[in-house]
Amino acid sequence: MTDRRRRPATELVHGGALRSQWGETSEALFLTQGFVYASAEEAEARFLGTSPGYQYSRFGNPTVTMFEDRMRLLEGAEAARATATGMAAVTAAMLCQLSAGDHVVAAKALFGSCRYVVEDLCPRFGISSTLVDGADLDQWKAAIRPTTRVLFLESPTNPTLEVYDIAAIAEIAHASGARLVVDNVFATPCWQSPLALGADVVVYSATKHIDGQGRCLGGVVLSSQKFVDDHLQVFIRQTGPSLSPFNAWVLLKGLETLHLRVEKQTSNAARLADALVEIPGIAKVIYPGRADHPQADLVKRQMRAGSNLVAFEVEGGKKAAFAFSNALEVIRISNNLGDAKSLITHPATTTHQRLKPEARAELGIGDGLLRLSVGLEDVEDLIEDVIAAADAARRV
What we know:
- This protein has a seven-stranded mixed beta sheet, with helices on both faces.
- It is an alpha/beta fold.
- It is built from 15 helices and twelve strands.
- The chain has helices at about 10-15, 40-50, 60-75, 85-95, 110-125, 135-145, 165-175, 190, 225-240, 245-255, 260-275, 295-300, 315-325, 355-365, 380-395, and strands spanning about 80-85, 105, 130, 150-155, 180-185, 200-205, 220-225, 280-285, 310-315, 330-335, 345, 370-375.
- The longest helix has 20 residues, at about 260-275.
- It is globular, with a radius of gyration of 22 Å.
């Protein structure tokens, strides 16, 4: 093999492959808890780290390693570590580098569980936090303290699809000696590369687009080799949020078609967003690929394409939003996203229900807001589905 860098679509099929002596075509599933050693001396050397090899699947596993390496190559990262879920990835990426007395600055617009980590979990361990308007760079700067160690954001945000200036926020973090952690789930590695923009750590819920077919849970953290060696690896080894080998194998299969699925989902989402704008009873449509997106210029600079997520408000509040959702026939109601199937979510009563009403209002999560994850169906069927649903919502 040459050292020529392969393009993403090729890495998604071949990257990180480890073949056994049998020369299998598909990646091997090493469904094992532990590993055996040729001698007691070899076991000692493995645990001392002086001899390469696996010890226990909580620490590392060949199938999991293949998934990590493929994600590393796709993201352009030095190292990656997989976790059991996306929230395990977020929690590990944050807590592995924080101690009592440290301070975190995070954007207010976060998935509900991510806000829990920042607002509720971290303070239990003496880690303070400040929430800011992620689009306001002055607020990021003003929130920095001498003890600030981490800045955290997601972009585009869940569920209102705001886009934040990753490069500028990374500069603010680095000027204070802090690291920037970016949740890149909504953009996917296909459309946005936070590490190239200056972020230090990127996290994914692999449950979403990476699997993309509703089969299993998973997460991954990507960063420098030094960050993994100094902070993340020991945290995962000792606390155990490890990805199962079987789920790693499923996710490897998902990666093979990731770019095909995301490209089609994104084109469907763009068409559907344009259609929603024209439908009576739809008060507002938010889509990163449209010229009327609040951060349209930033989207062009920072992302290679939009997203498969569309947010929109139904006139008539919760009652109308529920009627809209219940009238859908092709699109299904679910709190998941990134699936081959189109899925709709009412954030105010599901993913963000734990937030107080005033906090939801501040984030633009009204009772009429719906989040639509666009799938692989024929887009004409999806358009017909939302037109009929909007008609039902207007009648309530």
